[in-house]
């Protein structure tokens, strides 16, 4: 496989000059999502020329997947730039003119909820009735008040009571239920309606957190996730444009698509390397030079490296880490992978010839009145559709036509993925008829949906801090191998990037990008230090 031999205008830079004088370190980046591309771009810009990117799928972008639909773009993956002030994704988009056509409906200030925008959310019950707007606002104020309480445990060091089992869902359900039941002014029917709305809000929160249920999200850690100030933005031309900007200066021969990795051998001796290469039947006239890392691809090719940056998702690491690394990962890193959470949040796009919703309606929220006392949001397999929390109206219609975007998460999302398009379209149509009370709603003329859970190279949407995990597990996942205390081994053989490795910004695109830059900077600092130490050796 060719290395990246590119000319550099920065040879006056001490690091670039040193890299030109010495053997270039061989670096393999696994994954061409935002983290992998950001790492590669940073390395190339700093004079590293022997860089190879291996992407298992046939496209770049990872969990960014923009699909062209007529004259518009639909996002199967990342949709929002979360916050503007200091967000590298925002500045990349702004500097390259990607936000010039973003409408007011595609900007949101404050805590967004899925596809939030202008207009009014219609909360509809399974009996076909719309919940009055003032009642929705009253409940929303109560829910948001309790949501703020969930942030205090981490932010203020508030102790977590045993009755909550350190669960955001259990705590929220318990506190909100008590407040509803103690309200002396509400009738029993209003109380029941508010309890049903609580279940719907928790489903929305689960989709936003990409957790199977908010019961699984850690209460003591929930407030550590950090929101970047400023408005949230949609990129009309597609989030994939950010990916393309990151990739545009990466030479094509550096990037290898449809190249899944079978195993990463690290801490290799010269004998180990020769043995691995021989077993892989790697056609090489000369014996391999000593390398601490050997990346074995599924097609049998072996790449020798000094460093490998692994940007595989947490879902892939959960499924494959025991066989992906040889030797296996240290116990504490394997435990961090096990403890941290990742689940699936999927979108279901439905296109209609004409809107059946009113002009001011921005979403249809599904409230099941028979779930008022439900303590678990895990459903039998045949009732997977009950986890669909809402359908949002895509704005503006001049761009998107008459399009709804549904949301589903957890195991129920995986069951949806196993159904065919026709089945999902029929079920969604029946739900819309049932909840709006309009039996004349036609079947959509087109359906498009994501399938992040069953994608073997992704296995989930994004990470969350599960009950029993903490930010320390995120840091442990991000820690390079071998650990620094092992001073005899070559340093920084295996580095880890991706949204799940960013303690403050996990689950976000900017977290992914920053993590890739972070790992590239580790290598930049390593070689700056090495070359500086070499040039300052005393003459003996």
Automatic annotation (TrEMBL):
Residues 34-524 form the Amine oxidase domain. One of its GO terms (molecular function) is N(1)-acetylpolyamine oxidase (3-acetamidopropanal-forming) activity. One of its GO terms (biological process) is spermine catabolic process. It is found in: Cytoplasm; Peroxisome. Pfam families: Amino_oxidase. Pathway: Amine and polyamine metabolism; spermine metabolism. InterPro entries: Amino_oxidase, FAD/NAD-bd_sf, Flavin_monoamine_oxidase. PANTHER family: FLAVIN MONOAMINE OXIDASE, SPERMINE OXIDASE. Belongs to the flavin monoamine oxidase family. Monomer. It catalyses: N(1)-acetylspermidine + O2 + H2O = 3-acetamidopropanal + putrescine + H2O2; N(1)-acetylspermine + O2 + H2O = 3-acetamidopropanal + spermidine + H2O2; N(1),N(12)-diacetylspermine + O2 + H2O = 3-acetamidopropanal + N(1)-acetylspermidine + H2O2. One of its GO terms (cellular component) is peroxisome. This is Peroxisomal N(1)-acetyl-spermine/spermidine oxidase. It comes from Sinocyclocheilus grahami. Keywords: Acetylation, Cytoplasm, FAD, Flavoprotein, Oxidoreductase, Peroxisome. It is an enzyme of class 1 (oxidoreductase). Its main location: cytoplasm. Its cofactor is FAD. Its EC number is 1.5.3.13.
């Amino acid at each position: 496989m060719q290395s990246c031999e590119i000319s550099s205008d920065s040879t006056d830079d001490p690091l670039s000059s040193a890299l030109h004088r010495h053997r270039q370190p061989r670096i393999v980046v696994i994954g061409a999502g935002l983290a992998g591309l950001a790492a590669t771009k940073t390395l190339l810009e700093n004079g590293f020329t022997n860089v190879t990117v291996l992407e298992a799928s046939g496209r770049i972008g990872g969990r960014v997947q923009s699909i062209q639909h007529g004259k518009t773009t639909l996002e199967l993956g990342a949709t929002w730039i979360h916050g503007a002030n200091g967000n590298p994704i925002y500045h990349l988009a702004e500097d390259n003119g990607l936000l010039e056509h973003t409408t007011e409906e595609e900007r949101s200030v404050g805590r967004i909820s899925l596809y939030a925008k202008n207009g009014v959310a219609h909360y509809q019950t399974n009996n076909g009735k719309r919940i009055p707007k003032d009642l929705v606002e009253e409940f929303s104020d109560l829910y948001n008040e309790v949501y703020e309480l969930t942030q205090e445990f981490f932010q203020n060091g508030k102790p977590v009571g045993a009755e909550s089992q350190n669960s955001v869902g259990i705590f929220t359900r318990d506190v909100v239920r008590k407040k509803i039941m103690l309200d002396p002014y509400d009738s029993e029917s209003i109380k029941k309606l508010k309890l049903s709305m609580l279940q719907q809000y928790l489903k929305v929160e689960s989709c936003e957190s990409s957790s199977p249920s908010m019961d699984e999200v850690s209460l003591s850690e929930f407030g550590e996730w950090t929101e970047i100030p400023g408005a949230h933005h949609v990129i009309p031309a597609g989030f994939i444009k950010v990916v393309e900007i990151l990739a545009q200066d990466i030479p094509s021969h550096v990037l290898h698509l449809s190249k899944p990795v079978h195993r990463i051998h690290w801490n290799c001796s010269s004998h180990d390397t020769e043995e691995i290469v021989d077993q892989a039947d790697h056609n090489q006239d000369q014996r391999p030079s000593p390398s601490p890392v050997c990346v074995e691809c599924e097609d049998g090719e072996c790449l020798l490296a000094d460093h490998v940056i692994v940007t595989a998702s947490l879902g892939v690491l959960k499924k494959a880490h025991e066989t992906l690394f040889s030797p296996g990962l240290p116990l504490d890193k394997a435990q961090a992978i096990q403890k941290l959470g990742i689940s699936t949040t999927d979108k279901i796009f439905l296109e209609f010839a004409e809107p059946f919703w009113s002009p001011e309606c921005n979403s249809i929220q599904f409230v099941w009145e028979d779930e008022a006392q439900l303590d678990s949001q895990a459903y039998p397999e045949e009732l997977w559709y009950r986890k669909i929390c809402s359908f949002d109206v895509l704005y503006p219609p001049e761009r998107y036509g008459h399009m709804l975007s549904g949301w589903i998460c957890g195991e129920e999302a995986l069951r949806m993925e196993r159904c065919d398009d026709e089945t999902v379209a029929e079920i969604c149509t029946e739900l819309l008829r049932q909840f709006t009370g309009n039996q004349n709603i036609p079947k959509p003329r087109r359906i498009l949906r994501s399938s992040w859970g069953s994608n073997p190279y992704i296995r989930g949407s994004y990470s969350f801090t599960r009950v029993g995990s903490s930010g320390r597990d995120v840091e442990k996942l991000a820690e390079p191998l071998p650990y620094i205390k092992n001073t005899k081994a070559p340093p920084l053989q295996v580095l880890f990037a991706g949204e799940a490795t960013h303690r403050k910004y996990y689950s976000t695109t900017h977290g992914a990008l920053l993590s890739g830059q972070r790992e590239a900077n580790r290598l930049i600092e390593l070689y700056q230090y090495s070359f500086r130490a070499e040039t300052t050796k005393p003459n003996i």
